[in-house]
Design goal:
Chain lengths: 103, 473
């Protein structure tokens, strides 16, 4: 457990990571989300007990490297199929709200 | 109609003319309908299944049917099946339809499998109880007040309650084996990279595996041998040749079996689960197999490693759900940034958001080394220690879960308690080895107990034949 009982995530950090993740935390949820995250982080703190000096991080689980196929051009998804699922589209494009709202 | 417990029994009757695929499909559809309260299926493909049954019946009559003729399956709602909806049990994929079929699913179709529907699961496969679905909880058929386990809960219940013969699930930390144990069926997670994941919605890419639920080992072995092997659409799938698992199911040598002292002595282990595991180990000893207790002091570090790495990978994988190209889009946004945020906030459920936030946190610049890199280092320690055990032993035997299926709502107040349900299953995912859960009796409350066996990477043949031996004994 976290020895200095200082929470890992405070309100400000929470909103910062929520912004990075493109999620919005309503004021009414703040406390519950903070408590959940800190409960989990306190628990995973346990890893810091282990001495990992000189251990190479394990980044890839596949033992086979450069498992490549030949690069053959292929129209895997045609335009109408690609546009079909878009929430909003015209004949040629997926439509989204304005990037800058400068009214 | 009676319940068929193996493809072999079905195929014998199909060949003998006393059964047709059409009758089988009707039987399963009736069961799905009768047990609709269990909430195992999100959608059935009844008309298509009926049509496909006629096609397969015709093929059987003409003696040109595939290996899996007569097998009716369900697929977890994380696997692509062209022109069929796919939602990962999430609101954020409202209206999504697969534009191609997953390689694993296609290979089964090529052998004349009949797909009867898609199955409920925890949202984006995140959960251990199937309580996180946007489409409601799934119930355990043995006792509907209890969970079926998760995240592939619907897939487990479908086999348990005879709604299909086999289900496909996915297993990132135990999502096939844990519900298999809770529902009293067989559940296999193969080695990392054994089955192509092309067409499997990604949760944590260095862990995710497609897994199989069945009523016996032979069916699971056959399905594995059809699905496994190289695929040019997945660079992480192994090119290793695929043995004919279903033809090598006899186990006639003496095994060297280890059990992890820390698992049997674990504080939260239910006495009846412990007793059932101990009974299996005693039996193996009596039969002349080597059974030894080994220390695995890293056990308590496996789950924290798993949660740091999987949430990190999830936060990255799930960034694609932004409301632009497919699925749900919030209508309340006025600019693009707002649209992303509102869509994700309204579209994802609480557990998914929690994991995305946690993953974003452990990957953020100030904490990256302390959490993410440290977890990758510990992952190597755990893998090295496990690999070392497999230099000395053929199998590791342990309970699949510390408890039998808990009541719906039991862990609502304590997340870590819920996460601890995966204590024994995550090791196989953290190190990439194959593992299976097989039924191992029932507790006095009537709920099933599971036994887990792990083997070294790509030793599915040994794992399956040894499991067959255990089930026969």
């Amino acid at each position: 457990m976290n020895p200095n009982s200082q929470p890992n995530v405070d309100r400000q950090t929470l909103h910062k990571i929520a912004q990075l993740a493109r999620l919005d935390i309503a004021a009414t949820e703040e406390e519950a989300v903070l408590s959940d995250l800190n409960q989990i982080l306190d628990w995973v703190e346990k890893l810091k007990e282990l001495d990992t000096e000189g251990v190479e991080p394990l980044r890839f689980m596949s033992g086979e490297m450069n498992n490549l196929r030949e690069d053959i051009p292929n129209n895997a998804l045609n335009k109408s199929a690609a546009l079909k699922l878009a929430p909003k589209a015209d004949q040629d494009h997926i439509l989204v709200p304005k990037v800058l709202n400068n009214d | 109609m009676k319940e068929y417990s193996s493809l072999k029994a079905i195929q014998q009757e199909l060949q003998g003319g006393s059964l047709t695929c059409s009758q089988l499909v009707e039987h399963y559809l009736e069961n799905i309908d009768k047990k609709v309260d269990l909430n195992a299926f999100l959608e059935t493909y009844s008309n298509e299944a009926r049509q496909q049954a006629q096609v397969v019946d015709q093929k059987i009559a003409e003696n040109r049917a595939g290996k899996l003729a007569g097998m009716v399956i369900g697929i977890k709602d994380v696997l692509c099946y062209q022109n069929h909806p796919l939602q990962c049990s999430s609101k954020i994929l409202d209206g999504f339809e697969s534009q191609f079929t997953a390689t694993a699913v296609q290979r089964l179709l090529n052998e004349d499998v009949i797909i009867i529907g898609r199955q409920n699961c925890d949202e984006f496969a995140m959960g251990s109880s199937n309580e996180n679905s946007a489409f409601g909880v799934v119930r355990n058929a043995t006792n509907p007040a209890h969970v079926p386990g998760g995240s592939s809960g619907g897939s487990a219940v479908a086999v348990q309650a005879d709604m299909c013969l086999v289900s496909l699930g996915s297993d990132t930390g135990g999502s096939v084996r844990q519900p298999a144990a809770f529902c009293g069926v067989v559940g296999l997670k193969p080695s990392y990279g054994r089955i192509s994941r092309y067409g499997l919605a990604a949760y944590a890419s260095s862990f995710d595996c497609i897994g199989i639920f069945g009523k016996n080992i032979a069916d699971v072995a056959l399905v594995l041998e059809v699905m496994a092997g190289a695929d040019e659409f997945d660079t992480t799938v192994s090119k290793k040749s695929v043995p004919e698992y279903s033809k090598a199911l006899s186990f006639d040598r003496k095994a060297k079996v280890a059990y992890l002292k820390e698992t049997l002595e674990s504080e939260g282990l239910h006495p009846e689960v412990k007793q059932a595991t101990q009974a299996t180990l005693d039996f193996l000893k009596t039969e002349g197999h080597t059974v030894e207790s080994v220390d695995f002091p890293l056990l308590d570090y496996i789950l924290p490693t798993y949660y740091i790495l999987t949430t990190a990978e999830a936060s990255s994988n799930l960034s694609r759900y932004d409301g632009v190209r497919y699925g749900f889009r919030s209508t309340s946004a006025e600019d693009l940034q707002q649209m992303y945020t509102q869509t994700r906030t309204e579209g994802f459920g609480a557990e998914v958001k929690r994991r995305i936030l946690l993953g974003t946190y452990v990957l953020s610049a100030s904490y990256y080394d302390a959490y993410y890199t440290q977890a990758q280092k510990v992952r190597r320690l755990i893998k090295d220690a496990t690999d070392k055990l497999f230099e000395q032993y053929d199998f590791i035997v342990l309970p699949t879960t510390p408890n039998t299926a808990f009541e719906i709502g039991a862990h609502n107040d304590n997340l870590v308690e819920m996460y601890l349900e995966d204590l024994f299953t995550v090791q196989a995912n953290v190190v990439g080895v194959p593992a299976i859960s097989i039924p191992n009796g029932r507790a006095t409350n009537g709920l099933p107990i599971g036994l887990q066996v792990m083997a070294a990477t790509y030793q599915e043949d040994d794992l399956l034949s040894f499991s067959q031996y255990l089930l026969e004994s």
